[in-house]
Design goal:
Length: 505
């Protein structure tokens, strides 16, 4: 998994994922959960023989990260969708023909099952194979398993209306109210065409959602660079994109900002309206070094519009020394803040923050089984596939927490213990060593200890067993809503134990 040792302080809700670099975020809501998919920038996060990390190289991006949340603050890690084969991890790719998987777009729609003829909800993940073509995967759930329904790219330069697109990538997808799908894509700046690159496109999708129904149509976005986005607010379609780096763009609207256009038709024509979001490097809360390519997705949940975007700010905060290949790019990961929508139809993201402006939608229920890889904050821990095998191709989307060192911890925001009348906490873990999992209310302090669970050795690292610890905190002190800090103590923890689930009873 090439997971990072997390360092995310309590109260810092951004980035939304800190165990891997997740770039080019794309978010959907399904049955009360928000799912975010993004390029796995950690695909090239390896050290050389001298112990130095290489800078990011987009050619190493072979997989898509997937995380989810039902509250917008505590996020569950679902692992990597291995789209293309990866020589580093020796994992085979789902799309055998693809060499990369950049900037996914995901949606779901009802389509007819080929065997039964019945309508069935399917999920579709569109991805860029470098800048050469666009492919599609499909699944029966938002976390897979995913399959390649075509065995080849879905959109190529041979398709009608695609000629003139410099970079055939960065898809966005819209399923309209009538169930019709539309895909938006493209980018690049032909020489001398900085003001009007004419490289954005929209095409209607077939009813099967894996084919085009007619030619692609030009979106004449001024100063376009990349990063298509699409939303419908009321009866208006908002097409958004990242502006280019030319001096002309800087004077007209700002370099590498998110701009937007509107139309009353999903196929356009679209009219330019203004700036949606500045470059993260311009945020008062981020470093000026956080300038970089800008990528975004807007998702509406219960009437609130959230802007998901990426920035290299976390790489900067980690202070990782990069001595190799300085000409390459930064490692990016994803953040979320609120986008304001005004009565006159204008939209704007005013704050890009580390604390996060998204309010928690609901409290965590400790009396149901919770995944250990669900958390808001943490330090030292990493995430790994639940089943460890020498054959990396067997890795699954079911993830566990890897405690790398004594004193590592994770934290969950707003856990509701109700009247506090629980007697014990049960955990599932696998371990080659003895260690302790301790639960604290609000902060790690002896007076805040709720319970400790002694975890013993299991038959193997793949063998998960249940362990129980009694509640020691006074019920009056425990009742109500607390942040929950889970700490791990063991002298030999380093990669020798995996924590799967926990539940109070």
């Amino acid at each position: 998994m090439n997971s990072l040792a997390i360092k995310k302080e309590k109260g810092l809700n951004n980035p939304i994922i800190a165990q891997r670099f997740l770039a080019d975020p794309y978010a959907i809501e399904y049955e009360g959960r928000i799912y975010v998919y993004g390029s796995n920038d950690s695909g090239g996060f390896y050290k050389n023989d001298a112990g130095e990390y290489y800078k990011n190289f987009y050619g190493n991006i072979k997989g898509i990260n997937c995380i989810s949340s039902d509250d917008m603050v505590n996020w569950t890690d679902h692992g990597i969708i291995q789209v293309a084969a990866d020589e580093h991890s020796k994992r085979e790719g789902i799309a055998k023909w693809a060499s990369n998987s950049w900037a996914p777009a995901v949606c779901y729609n009802k389509v007819k099952d080929e065997k039964t003829g019945e309508e069935k909800t399917k999920f579709f993940l569109y991805f860029a194979n470098s800048a050469a073509n666009i492919g599609v995967l499909e699944a029966d759930s938002p976390i897979g398993p995913w399959r390649d329904p075509l065995g080849k790219p879905m959109i190529t330069r041979e398709d009608a209306g695609v000629a003139g697109v410099e970079w055939l990538f960065d898809p966005a997808v819209l399923v309209d109210d009538d169930g019709t799908g539309y895909i938006y894509f493209g980018g690049g700046v032909p020489s001398g065409m900085e003001k009007a690159p004419k490289t954005g496109r929209v095409a209607k999708l077939g009813k099967d959602m894996i084919s085009l129904d007619g030619p692609a149509v030009l979106i004449d976005a001024p100063y376009m660079f990349e990063d298509s986005g699409i939303n419908k607010i009321g009866d208006t379609y908002y097409y958004s994109y990242c502006s280019n780096w030319s001096e002309e763009a800087g004077q007209a609207m700002g370099k590498a900002q998110i701009s937007y256009m509107t139309s009353k038709n999903p196929m356009g024509p679209f009219t330019y309206q203004g700036e949606m979001m500045q470059n993260p490097g311009q945020s008062q809360y981020f470093s000026g070094k956080a300038w970089g390519n800008n990528h975004h997705c807007v998702l509406a949940v219960d009437g609130v519009h959230y802007m998901f975007y990426h920035t290299p700010q976390y790489e900067i905060d980690m202070n990782i020394p990069f001595e190799n290949a300085p000409e390459k790019s930064a490692y990016r990961t994803s953040y979320v803040d609120v986008m304001d929508v005004y009565e006159d139809g204008k939209v704007r993201v005013h704050n890009m923050t580390k604390t996060g402006t998204a309010k928690q939608l609901k409290n965590v229920n400790p009396y149901e089984e919770n995944k250990a890889v669900t958390f808001a904050w943490g330090e030292g821990v990493a995430t790994e596939p639940k089943k460890i095998s020498k054959d990396a191709r067997t890795c699954e989307m079911d993830m566990s927490l890897d405690m790398l060192d004594n004193g590592d911890w994770t934290g969950l925001s707003k856990v509701d213990f109700g009247d506090g009348t629980c007697n014990n906490v049960k955990v599932k873990a696998s371990s080659e060593v003895d260690f302790t999992i301790s639960f604290y209310a609000d902060e790690i302090d002896d007076k805040n200890l709720i319970a400790s669970v002694k975890v013993g050795k299991t038959d193997s690292i793949n063998d998960y067993s249940e362990f129980t610890g009694n509640i020691v905190m006074d019920k009056e002190l425990l009742k109500g809503v607390h942040d929950l800090i889970i700490s791990f103590e063991g002298a030999e923890l380093s990669g020798n134990a995996l924590f799967d689930t926990w539940k109070f009873e």
